[in-house]
Amino acid sequence: MNYIFKKNIWLHNAKIIGLSFNTVALIVFFSLMSTVVELFGIGIFLPIFQFIRLEGDIDALVADSTIWQYLVNVFDYFSFEPSISILLSIAFFFFFGRQLFVYLRMVYIKAAVERLSQTQRNNLFDRYLESSTSYQDSIPVGNLTNIIMLEVGNAVSAAIGPVNLIVFAIMLTGYLCLLFILSWQMTIISVVVLLIASLASKVWIKKSTKTSRKLVQANTLMSEFLVGRLRSPRLVRLSGTESVEKKEFHSLTLSQRKHRILITILQAKTTITMEPIVIGLSLFFLYFSYTVLNLKIEEIGLYLVIALRLMPVLQSMIVQVQAIQGSIGSVEILENRFNDLKESVEKDTGVESFNTFKQPILFRNVSYRYAKDLNDVLKDITINFKANEMTAVVGPSGGGKSTLIDLFPRLRLPTKGLIQVDGINIEKYTLKSLRKMISYTPQSPQIFDGTVKSHILYGKPNATNSEIQEAVYLAGAKDFINQLPQGFDTVLGEDAVRLSGGQRQRLDLARALASKSPILILDEPTSNLDAESEEKFNKALSRIRSNTDTTIIIVAHRLASISDADKIIVLNQGKVESSGVHSELLSQNGWYTKAWKMQLS
User: Fold this and answer.
1) At what angle do helices 45-53 and 297-326 cross, to 10 degrees?
2) C-beta separation of 520 from 552 below 8 A
3) How many CB atoms lie within 10 A of CB 524?
């Protein structure tokens, strides 16, 4: 216990978890009240035993015991005649009161633990969404999942654990005070023996800390493995690697099992060591009090009762210390993740609101380099995207196309150069207003488990029914939605596995159109589609251009789908190789010409 407070581990953990002083104070209050009431409940048995021994002779009781001198005055004050039934009723009242305060303490601690766990999980998720794109790229999803689902609970237990130690310390102090009143000589001897016995667990406590860190690591590896494999069962099956994956999973579960069993063994060693010591001490007291101290039988009996009640309290204290040390790894990983998230928060430097634009979106000498990379992905890019037109960005894989479109919504910030709209640097616009002007569809639609309608409303939950119908019409999704079992209320399941690739793409396009943002960014929307689905998507794109004033920026792999674009930009090895309309690019005999002939053949 001293180890914990000496290194300020509790204060540190409490600060990370957000454990308030008021919460601690209320828990301590409930504990103090339950202990006080219990001590009175136990203490009342001494006059009860005396009453039985002297057969209710009040004069003899007053002459024999100082306690009865006070009790008689209390009974006289309330005009009660001392009797065994009243004494037992008082004892029951005290123990009932003790249980009431224990109940309040248990419920309040559970409520506090759940509230703190919820708060920390919310904070982690909120901060993750607020973090920069580069940080989100770097953190494995399984790692964060493990922290949110498992390690947060362990860390909260580590923070609330010392409060439980205070609870046990209050109970221990109360018991020792009562024992001291009965026999100060034996109490001093008992305290010395118990302190020496508690030192035996010091080695096991240190091992608990090391084991907890290994268990956290094993849990993290397990979560990362599961998230990856459960999302890719077809890849595993078609690659014929089931046996390899099973072997790896079994290895991870074995590591978890070993570390959890070791923690239990360390706690069990403490339990089995303390119990014989306390029982042996109690038997020694029985002998010593009878042969040397000449204590009365009721005093000996009460002393033994208190000593035996003290044993589980002392055991719980030491086990709680081990549990705290066993959760240190969870606190450390939680603290490290919070620190990383704090440093990686997406900075919104904008103050102006972006509502409309008339002049082109202009990239001026823009370069971008990923963290830890030696070379720029984009190199001195100067291009523009005109309002109310469709501009296509094409080029070989790895040329920087997706990175380029990440720059406009400020998912990434240029390493050099600037991006302007209506002559204003986009960094001066607030992120909220900038991104509200943009709708985006990724190459692989990300559809959460829910209904068709809930996906279309994602991003604009207040869209009207007419807006939904218009978006579905423009996206070319109306026919297949009407053919679904429950239409718009059909539950899709995660990633909408019931739908074809083309249906998922058009459904996601409807989601983007429902927000009615003036800028639509499409990231290689037809790269995973068959010829029929690609044709349907291209027809949807034509409807959007004919019926709306939407500014479309499309990253494309298949050139036939963007040959009628108002402008085509060829991005090759991070540089703008050429730009113009389809016919102009074909005449230049560059990458576009070669790619067109290759795809055409």
Assistant:
1) 160
2) yes
3) 20
The H or E element spanning position 416 is: strand 416-421
- Measured in degrees and rounded to the nearest 5, phi and psi for residue 131 equal -80, 165
277 close to 200: Cβ distance less than 8 angstroms: no
Q: Which domains does the chain have, with CATH numbers?
A: 2-343 (1.20.1560.10), 349-436+561-601 (3.40.50.300)
pLDDT value, residue 362: 93
Provide the β-strand partners of residue 451: 491
> Which three-class secondary structure string do you get for 498-534?
CCCHHHHHHHHHHHHHHCCCCEEEEECCCCCCCHHHH
Instruction: Name the 3-class secondary structure at 420.
Output: strand
Instruction: Decide the pairing of beta strands 416-421 and 575-580.
Output: unpaired
Strand 575-580 relative to strand 551-555: parallel, antiparallel, unpaired? unpaired
Distance, in Å, from the CA atom of 365 to the CA atom of 361, rounded to the nearest integer, reads 13
Average pLDDT over residues 477-494: 88
Per-residue pLDDT at 581 exceeds 80? yes
pLDDT recorded at residue 5: 44
What is the pTM (predicted TM-score) of this model?
0.76
Q: Is 339 exposed, middle or buried (0-12, 13-18, 19+ CB in 10 A)?
A: exposed
Query: Which residue reads 């268990």 in tokens?
Result: 215
Percent of the chain with pLDDT over 70: 89
Phi/psi of residue 580, nearest 5 degrees:
155, -165
CA atoms within 13 A on the CB side of 264: 6
CA distance 206 to 213: 12
Q: Is the pLDDT of residue 281 over 80?
A: no
Other C-beta atoms closer than 10 Å to the C-beta of 121 total: 16
| pLDDT, tens digit (0-9, with 9 covering 90-100), for 62-100 | 887 777 888 888 888 888 888 888 888 888 888 888 889
The residues that bridge with 567 in the sheet, in sequence order, are 391
